[in-house]
Each structure stands twice: as structure tokens, then as C-alpha cells.
Amino acid sequence: MSDMLVRRFQRFSVVLVVLIAFVARSHAQIVAFGASNISGWNLAATETMPAQLQEMLRAKGYVANVLNAGIYGNTTAEMRDRMDSDIPQGTTIVILETSGGIYNNSLKGISREQGDADMAAINERLKARGITVIPVSGASLPAQYHQQDGVHLNAEGDQLIASQLLPKIVDILGPPPGPPPTETDEMVKKACYADAKRLCASDLGDDAKRHACMQEHKAELSKDCLDAIAASRQH
To answer: What is the DSSP letter of 177?
Structure first.
């Protein structure tokens, strides 16, 4: 393989890695999995914890989807049976409700030991799939965050849970990606690449240093580079 082909392949590989990282962070798939306090019993769709969490993430710059995979009345065994079908491939994070299934078990005479075994199996399966699991429960929240039945969370309770989850998820995802390069950005890079290589060869791998170097050598930039910069400022 010629040196030119090697260099082209290396540049392509770097671009591909950057694009993969951008897509992974900006389009993170998150699933909220559990029973009625995930599904949002007696709440509007926009008031549920998954919906509120999704809006919080998007306000911070993440184009993340938070799938609501809660089903009213589910026992831990029912959660275990449907987990693979309801938590799709490509899921990054699962918010796992830990109390709803156990509570529903108690209503149906299912032992706590069986419930704990089911929840442990769900955790193990998700981790085997490479999914980060964040446990959550609203059972211990004060009364003002529950509906009149004392079991199901109200909209404020779901908002509180979402706000508590937000920093944990942000920590896992890392900083939100900046906007992808525009066509104008690519035009400037292409027109100025030869100048950058000629004037700032030691700074090519550092965007901030390369930009500062190019500013210092502005008088030495080629006409093509200067024209591309001028055109970009008109957009």
C-alpha cells in the first residue's frame, strides 16, 4: 500500500471514529423499564418520568431518546420475561425500577425471595448485553410526591426522579457533542489545509492551537484560504 493510500486511510479512520462517537452521544438510546411508576399511571404522557427526563436531556444538548417501557401491574417475573423484547438492541442505559414489580408481587402472593431473584437476573442479563443499569425507586419519596393512593407518583414526583437521574446519565454520556461540521466548515478546512500544513505543521492535531497559529500567520495565507474564510462569514 502506498504512503498516500495509508495517509488517506488514516484520515478516514479518524473521521469515522469521530462520527461514531458523535452519533453515540447525541442519539443515546435510554430505556426506562419497570411497572406503573415508569408507565406513569394516571398521568399525561408528557408528565411521565421518561418524557420529562428526555426533555431535560435535550435541553442540555443531547438528542437522546428515553423509551417508556413501563407496564401497569407487572410482576418481577413478567418484567423478566419481556426484557429482551422491550429493551431493544442499541440501548445504552436502562433505568430499572426496583420497587414496582416487588410491590405487585406482594399483591399476588409471590415471595420476596422470588422477586429478588428475578431482579438480580434482569440486572445480570442487562450487564451481559453491555448496558449500564441505573436503579430507581419512588417508594421512599415524601407523601406530596404521590397520588392519593399513596403508591403511584404524581407529576411532581416524576419530575423529581427525572432531575435526580439527570446528572447520573450526563456523567455516563459525557459532555454533549457540539454541532456536526457544516458544509461551509468543510469548505474552509479543504481550502486552508495546505496552508495549515505549511505554516502550522506541529499543531495539526490540536484545533485550538492550529486556529491560533493560522491567526498569527494570517498575512501568509493563500488566496484560496482567505476567499473561503471570507465566504464562510457571509453565511
So the answer is: P
Count CB-CB contacts under 10 A for residue 35. 24
* Burial tier of 168 (Cβ tally within 10 Å: 0-12, 13-18, 19+): middle
Rounded Cα–Cα distance for residues 208 and 224 (Å): 22
Q: For the segment 166-202, what is each residue's pLDDT rounded down to a tens digit?
A: 999 999 999 887 666 667 777 888 889 898 889 998 8
Query: Is-contact 87 126, C-beta < 8 A?
Result: yes
Specify the CATH architecture of the domain 21-173: 3-Layer(aba) Sandwich (3.40)
DSSP alpha helices (H): ranges in 90-216? 100-107, 112-128, 155-173, 183-199, 207-216
Q: Tell me if residue 49 falls in helix, strand or coil.
A: helix
Describe the crossing of helices 223-232 and 183-199 by its angle, rounded to 10 degrees.
150
pLDDT tens, residue by residue, 134-167: 999 999 999 999 999 999 999 999 999 999 999 9
Give me 98's grid cell: 426496583
Give per-residue burial for 121-152: e unless 16+ CB within 10 Å, then b.
Answer: ebbeebeeeebbeeebbbeebeeebbeeeeeb
> Which residues, 6+ apart, have CB-to-CB distance to 53 below 8 Å?
30, 32, 66, 95, 162, 165, 166, 169
User: In whole angstroms, what separates CA 77 from the centre of its chain?
Assistant: 28
**At what angle are helices 76-86 and 100-107 packed, to 10 degrees?**
140
Domain ranges for the chain, please list them: 21-173, 181-232
Report the C-alpha gap between 149 and 229 in whole angstroms: 64
